[in-house]
Amino acid sequence: MAKKVKQRGKRPPPSRTVRLTGQRLIEGLAGPDGTRIRLARPADSTRVGELLTLATEQVESEHIDPVAAGQCGEWLLNGLVNDQVSTEALVRAATSGRLQEAALALSLPLVAEDRDGTLVGALLALPPGGVVQTVQEAGYEQHSLLAMLKYVKIKGLAVTEAARGRGVGGALLKRCTQLYWQLDFMLLFGEFEIERALGPYYSRHGFTVLEPGETTDVGFVLTGRPIGLGAAPGEQLFFRWRRKTS
Asked: Which residues contact 5 (CB under 8 A, 6 or more apart)?
Protein backbone atom coordinates (compact mmCIF):
# COMPACT_ATOMS: atom_id res chain seq x y z
CA MET A 1 0.00 0.00 0.00
CA ALA A 2 1.39 3.35 -0.98
CA LYS A 3 2.15 5.68 1.88
CA LYS A 4 0.45 9.03 1.98
CA VAL A 5 2.89 11.84 1.48
CA LYS A 6 2.45 14.51 4.09
CA GLN A 7 2.38 17.88 2.43
CA ARG A 8 4.46 20.52 4.11
CA GLY A 9 4.69 24.23 3.82
CA LYS A 10 0.99 24.77 3.28
CA ARG A 11 -0.83 26.88 5.78
CA PRO A 12 -4.51 27.58 6.10
CA PRO A 13 -5.56 30.94 4.69
CA PRO A 14 -5.46 33.73 7.25
CA SER A 15 -8.74 34.32 9.02
CA ARG A 16 -10.57 37.46 8.03
CA THR A 17 -11.39 40.00 10.65
CA VAL A 18 -15.11 40.00 11.35
CA ARG A 19 -16.58 43.36 10.42
CA LEU A 20 -18.16 44.98 13.43
CA THR A 21 -21.85 45.72 13.58
CA GLY A 22 -23.85 47.08 16.47
CA GLN A 23 -25.55 43.73 16.94
CA ARG A 24 -22.26 41.84 17.07
CA LEU A 25 -20.83 44.29 19.55
CA ILE A 26 -23.86 43.95 21.82
CA GLU A 27 -24.07 40.16 21.60
CA GLY A 28 -20.30 39.67 21.84
CA LEU A 29 -17.51 38.53 19.58
CA ALA A 30 -15.38 35.45 20.10
CA GLY A 31 -12.33 36.12 22.23
CA PRO A 32 -9.40 33.92 23.30
CA ASP A 33 -9.84 30.79 25.36
CA GLY A 34 -13.63 30.76 25.22
CA THR A 35 -14.18 34.38 26.23
CA ARG A 36 -16.47 36.86 24.50
CA ILE A 37 -15.78 40.55 23.98
CA ARG A 38 -18.88 42.71 24.13
CA LEU A 39 -20.28 46.09 25.01
CA ALA A 40 -20.80 46.52 28.74
CA ARG A 41 -24.41 46.38 29.93
CA PRO A 42 -25.91 48.46 32.75
CA ALA A 43 -25.83 45.44 35.06
CA ASP A 44 -22.05 45.19 34.49
CA SER A 45 -21.27 48.66 35.82
CA THR A 46 -20.16 47.71 39.34
CA ARG A 47 -17.86 44.99 38.08
CA VAL A 48 -16.50 47.27 35.36
CA GLY A 49 -15.59 49.81 38.02
CA GLU A 50 -13.87 47.15 40.13
CA LEU A 51 -11.87 45.92 37.16
CA LEU A 52 -10.78 49.34 35.95
CA THR A 53 -9.44 50.27 39.37
CA LEU A 54 -6.90 47.49 38.84
CA ALA A 55 -5.46 49.61 36.03
CA THR A 56 -5.87 53.16 37.30
CA GLU A 57 -6.92 55.00 40.43
CA GLN A 58 -8.47 57.73 38.28
CA VAL A 59 -11.75 55.91 37.71
CA GLU A 60 -14.58 57.96 39.18
CA SER A 61 -18.35 57.73 39.39
CA GLU A 62 -18.63 59.98 36.32
CA HIS A 63 -17.05 57.14 34.32
CA ILE A 64 -19.11 54.29 35.78
CA ASP A 65 -22.53 55.85 36.40
CA PRO A 66 -23.18 56.34 32.66
CA VAL A 67 -22.50 52.64 32.11
CA ALA A 68 -25.13 51.83 34.74
CA ALA A 69 -27.55 54.23 33.04
CA GLY A 70 -26.94 52.73 29.59
CA GLN A 71 -25.75 56.08 28.23
CA CYS A 72 -22.50 54.96 26.61
CA GLY A 73 -21.79 54.20 22.98
CA GLU A 74 -25.06 55.22 21.30
CA TRP A 75 -23.39 57.21 18.52
CA LEU A 76 -20.79 54.50 18.02
CA LEU A 77 -23.47 51.86 17.51
CA ASN A 78 -25.38 54.11 15.12
CA GLY A 79 -22.19 54.98 13.28
CA LEU A 80 -21.42 51.34 12.54
CA VAL A 81 -24.25 51.38 10.00
CA ASN A 82 -22.31 53.77 7.73
CA ASP A 83 -18.82 53.41 9.24
CA GLN A 84 -18.91 57.03 10.39
CA VAL A 85 -20.24 59.01 13.33
CA SER A 86 -22.56 61.89 12.43
CA THR A 87 -20.74 65.22 12.51
CA GLU A 88 -24.09 67.01 12.41
CA ALA A 89 -25.17 65.32 15.64
CA LEU A 90 -22.03 66.57 17.39
CA VAL A 91 -22.53 70.13 16.12
CA ARG A 92 -26.14 70.09 17.33
CA ALA A 93 -25.03 68.84 20.74
CA ALA A 94 -22.40 71.57 21.00
CA THR A 95 -24.85 74.27 19.93
CA SER A 96 -27.38 73.20 22.54
CA GLY A 97 -24.82 72.81 25.34
CA ARG A 98 -24.99 69.01 25.45
CA LEU A 99 -21.34 68.15 24.86
CA GLN A 100 -21.24 65.94 27.96
CA GLU A 101 -24.02 63.80 26.50
CA ALA A 102 -22.09 63.67 23.22
CA ALA A 103 -18.97 62.48 25.03
CA LEU A 104 -20.93 59.65 26.63
CA ALA A 105 -22.42 58.69 23.26
CA LEU A 106 -18.85 58.42 21.91
CA SER A 107 -17.52 56.39 24.85
CA LEU A 108 -16.84 52.67 24.65
CA PRO A 109 -17.04 50.38 27.69
CA LEU A 110 -16.01 46.86 26.68
CA VAL A 111 -15.90 43.72 28.79
CA ALA A 112 -14.47 40.25 28.41
CA GLU A 113 -16.90 37.59 29.58
CA ASP A 114 -15.67 34.11 30.47
CA ARG A 115 -17.48 30.86 29.68
CA ASP A 116 -19.28 30.92 33.04
CA GLY A 117 -20.45 34.51 32.61
CA THR A 118 -17.79 36.02 34.87
CA LEU A 119 -16.33 39.31 33.70
CA VAL A 120 -12.56 38.90 33.63
CA GLY A 121 -11.53 42.06 31.75
CA ALA A 122 -12.68 45.58 30.98
CA LEU A 123 -11.66 48.50 28.80
CA LEU A 124 -13.00 52.04 28.81
CA ALA A 125 -12.29 54.44 25.92
CA LEU A 126 -13.66 57.97 25.67
CA PRO A 127 -13.17 61.35 23.99
CA PRO A 128 -9.98 63.02 25.29
CA GLY A 129 -11.23 66.03 27.22
CA GLY A 130 -7.73 67.37 27.81
CA VAL A 131 -6.84 67.35 24.12
CA VAL A 132 -10.18 68.91 23.15
CA GLN A 133 -9.64 71.70 25.67
CA THR A 134 -6.05 72.28 24.51
CA VAL A 135 -7.13 72.60 20.88
CA GLN A 136 -9.93 74.94 21.92
CA GLU A 137 -7.62 77.14 24.00
CA ALA A 138 -5.25 77.36 21.03
CA GLY A 139 -8.03 79.16 19.17
CA TYR A 140 -9.39 76.29 17.10
CA GLU A 141 -13.00 76.02 18.29
CA GLN A 142 -14.28 74.00 15.32
CA HIS A 143 -11.21 71.77 15.36
CA SER A 144 -11.83 70.97 19.01
CA LEU A 145 -15.14 69.40 18.04
CA LEU A 146 -13.44 67.48 15.25
CA ALA A 147 -10.96 66.16 17.79
CA MET A 148 -13.86 64.38 19.51
CA LEU A 149 -14.49 62.46 16.28
CA LYS A 150 -10.83 61.71 15.56
CA TYR A 151 -9.02 61.13 18.86
CA VAL A 152 -9.78 58.56 21.57
CA LYS A 153 -8.27 58.06 24.99
CA ILE A 154 -8.07 54.60 26.53
CA LYS A 155 -8.95 55.49 30.10
CA GLY A 156 -8.22 52.03 31.47
CA LEU A 157 -7.58 48.42 30.49
CA ALA A 158 -7.61 45.69 33.12
CA VAL A 159 -7.71 41.91 33.36
CA THR A 160 -8.11 39.89 36.54
CA GLU A 161 -4.94 38.27 37.81
CA ALA A 162 -6.39 34.79 37.32
CA ALA A 163 -7.17 35.48 33.64
CA ARG A 164 -3.84 37.04 32.68
CA GLY A 165 -1.76 35.29 30.04
CA ARG A 166 -4.83 34.21 28.05
CA GLY A 167 -4.79 37.09 25.60
CA VAL A 168 -7.84 38.80 27.07
CA GLY A 169 -6.29 42.28 27.25
CA GLY A 170 -5.07 42.01 23.68
CA ALA A 171 -8.55 40.99 22.52
CA LEU A 172 -10.09 44.02 24.22
CA LEU A 173 -7.53 46.31 22.59
CA LYS A 174 -8.14 44.66 19.22
CA ARG A 175 -11.89 45.25 19.28
CA CYS A 176 -11.48 48.78 20.61
CA THR A 177 -9.03 49.62 17.83
CA GLN A 178 -11.16 47.91 15.19
CA LEU A 179 -14.26 49.84 16.20
CA TYR A 180 -12.71 53.29 16.16
CA TRP A 181 -10.72 52.65 12.99
CA GLN A 182 -13.90 51.43 11.27
CA LEU A 183 -15.55 54.69 12.31
CA ASP A 184 -12.71 56.73 10.76
CA PHE A 185 -11.06 57.86 14.00
CA MET A 186 -7.35 58.62 13.69
CA LEU A 187 -5.60 58.29 17.05
CA LEU A 188 -5.80 56.05 20.11
CA PHE A 189 -3.72 56.91 23.15
CA GLY A 190 -3.48 56.36 26.87
CA GLU A 191 -1.23 56.53 29.91
CA PHE A 192 0.08 54.07 32.45
CA GLU A 193 1.98 54.53 35.68
CA ILE A 194 5.73 54.20 35.19
CA GLU A 195 6.12 51.57 37.93
CA ARG A 196 3.72 49.27 36.08
CA ALA A 197 6.31 48.91 33.29
CA LEU A 198 3.69 48.26 30.60
CA GLY A 199 5.74 49.66 27.73
CA PRO A 200 6.63 46.27 26.20
CA TYR A 201 2.99 45.15 26.44
CA TYR A 202 1.61 48.09 24.50
CA SER A 203 4.48 47.94 22.03
CA ARG A 204 3.54 44.34 21.21
CA HIS A 205 0.04 45.54 20.40
CA GLY A 206 1.17 48.15 17.89
CA PHE A 207 1.46 51.23 20.08
CA THR A 208 4.37 53.64 20.31
CA VAL A 209 5.45 54.15 23.91
CA LEU A 210 7.17 57.39 24.90
CA GLU A 211 9.73 57.79 27.64
CA PRO A 212 8.66 59.76 30.73
CA GLY A 213 8.54 63.45 29.93
CA GLU A 214 8.43 62.98 26.15
CA THR A 215 5.64 64.42 24.02
CA THR A 216 4.28 63.81 20.54
CA ASP A 217 2.53 66.19 18.14
CA VAL A 218 -1.18 65.55 17.74
CA GLY A 219 -2.31 68.92 16.43
CA PHE A 220 -0.80 69.25 12.99
CA VAL A 221 -3.24 66.87 11.29
CA LEU A 222 -6.18 68.93 12.58
CA THR A 223 -4.94 72.52 12.73
CA GLY A 224 -1.78 72.64 10.63
CA ARG A 225 0.14 73.62 13.75
CA PRO A 226 1.84 71.38 16.32
CA ILE A 227 0.09 70.64 19.59
CA GLY A 228 2.04 68.51 22.03
CA LEU A 229 0.60 65.56 23.92
CA GLY A 230 2.38 63.99 26.85
CA ALA A 231 1.67 61.96 29.96
CA ALA A 232 1.08 63.34 33.42
CA PRO A 233 3.97 63.25 35.92
CA GLY A 234 4.76 59.69 36.97
CA GLU A 235 3.13 58.21 33.87
CA GLN A 236 4.08 57.22 30.31
CA LEU A 237 2.16 57.87 27.12
CA PHE A 238 1.34 55.21 24.53
CA PHE A 239 -0.34 56.02 21.22
CA ARG A 240 -1.22 54.60 17.83
CA TRP A 241 -2.22 56.34 14.60
CA ARG A 242 -4.53 54.70 12.09
CA ARG A 243 -2.78 53.84 8.87
CA LYS A 244 -4.69 54.81 5.80
CA THR A 245 -5.18 52.02 3.28
CA SER A 246 -5.52 52.61 -0.44
From this structure: none
